[in-house]
Write a structure and sequence with these properties.
Strand content: 25-35%
Helix content: 25-40%
Order of helices and strands: HHHEEEHEHHEEEEEHHEEEHEEHEHEH
Oligomer: single chain
Largest sheet: 8 strands, mixed
Structural class: alpha/beta
Shape: elongated
Length: 400
């Protein structure tokens, strides 16, 4: 079965690359993926699936029931397909045609690979005893997250997985390698929005004003103690401020300043304590300096927890499929993923697929110059299908 799947993946690599390049040419932002939804559904119909569109507004899902006897055991496979508000700078011949929008997180590669896996699994359908749920998720990059939106919109009415698997490309990992981690893998993420209101005026008479820029600057510095002095040294925590706006001029002190940031960690109790500490710092400093602080914390994605058994399965199947030296155990990451919503309900594994092009500089995700080795499409599509088949074999003794 392994060699058969590897051959099927190799035979259709030109099609998988075609899918990826089309998606890369036509990226769409979160909750706007109507063209992507239609394209993915069209490809699935061409394989013989009956996809359902519009789940969670712009998501697609399809069910494949095996033909080797009735069995309710279900494996869920998920890919995300929203893009980012980034202007592409790769110089590729299939550079984004949607100016200011780019697949800078590899979601085009994820989706094309799952389409490839869907095609492989369709050809193996007569020998599958069990069910495959294919999930093409929108809006992974934007709250409240496509995973939650799809579940709330009846995704699991189609089929409820007993196990679920997803992967993400990793630009710092060479193509042909995969990695995974048991237990806590990716952080929770919460966004916070702060408005500091003071009293504007002339820059030459600051004593007549309450300068919100000064107040906000003290808050920026003080917030660093949430990680350095409030978080346990044993608890990974990140607090970052990504936006600081105050619309004054050289000689105008504005009435208000706005800050936006994130807080990420791996423990629910500490997560809530950190929220309260942020609130105390913001309001306390503002009040002490004669200003007001209006803080909103948007409770976001939980942390990703990989099921031990599912993750061991991915590891062992990876060793079988790629070779012992091509599979590695990974460290925790402070990045976040709304796949966590699936993993809260279903034993799951979220793993990594290497896409680094040998001999080229390593590029980070969310960069305008992100490049992926397109050979990874063959590896990912084949392995996703193989892992699903092996998961069914393990649970329901697949025939063949």
């Amino acid at each position: 079965m392994k060699r058969e799947i590897q051959q099927l993946a190799a035979d259709m690599v030109s099609k998988t690359v075609e899918w990826r390049r089309y998606l890369h040419l036509h990226p769409e932002l979160s909750q706007q993926e109507y063209g992507t939804m239609a394209y993915v559904a069209e490809q699935l119909r061409g394989m013989g699936y009956e996809p359902r569109e519009g789940i969670g507004k712009t998501g697609v899902a399809a069910v494949l029931k095996g033909g080797a006897g009735a069995d309710d055991y279900c494996i869920g496979l998920r890919a995300d397909y929203d893009a980012l508000p980034i202007t592409e700078a790769t110089g590729l011949p299939f550079t984004s045609q949607n100016v200011g929008v780019m697949h800078a997180c590899g979601h085009d590669m994820h989706t094309a690979s799952l389409l490839g896996a869907a095609a492989i699994l369709k050809q193996l359908q007569p020998r599958l005893r069990g069910t495959i749920l294919l999930v093409f998720e929108p809006s992974e990059e934007m709250y409240p997250g496509g995973a939650r939106m799809m579940m709330e919109d009846g995704l699991f009415d189609l089929a409820k997985p007993n196990e679920m698997y997803a992967f993400h490309c990793l630009p710092e990992m060479d193509c042909g390698r995969i990695g995974m981690r048991k237990g806590k893998y990716m952080a929770s993420t919460d966004e916070w929005y702060l408005t500091v209101r003071g009293k504007g005026g002339h820059g030459a008479t600051p004593h007549l004003s309450v300068d919100p820029i000064l107040v906000a600057s003290h808050i920026v510095v003080a917030l660093q103690q949430v990680v350095s002095r409030n978080a346990s040294p044993l608890m990974p925590t990140t607090l970052s401020i990504g936006k600081f706006n105050a619309n004054g001029r050289t000689n105008i002190i504005p009435d208000e300043a706005k800050l936006e940031g994130i807080i990420r960690t791996f423990d629910e109790k500490w997560r809530l304590e950190a929220h309260e500490r942020i609130r105390q710092i913001c309001t306390g400093i503002a009040q002490s300096m004669g200003a007001e602080a209006d803080l909103f914390i948007d409770y976001g994605y939980p942390f990703v927890v990989n099921d031990d058994d599912c993750t061991q399965l991915v590891h062992d199947n990876g060793v079988d499929y790629f070779g012992e030296g091509q599979v590695e155990w990974l460290d925790m990451r402070m990045t976040a993923e709304d796949f966590a919503f699936f993993a809260q309900q279903i034993p799951s594994c979220y793993f990594r697929v290497g896409v680094h092009i040998p001999g080229t500089p390593t590029c980070n995700l969310h960069r305008p110059d992100l490049m992926v080795d397109e050979r990874s499409l063959e590896y990912a599509s084949g392995f996703v299908a193989y892992n699903a088949v092996r998961a069914l074999q393990q649970k329901v003794k697949l025939n063949g």
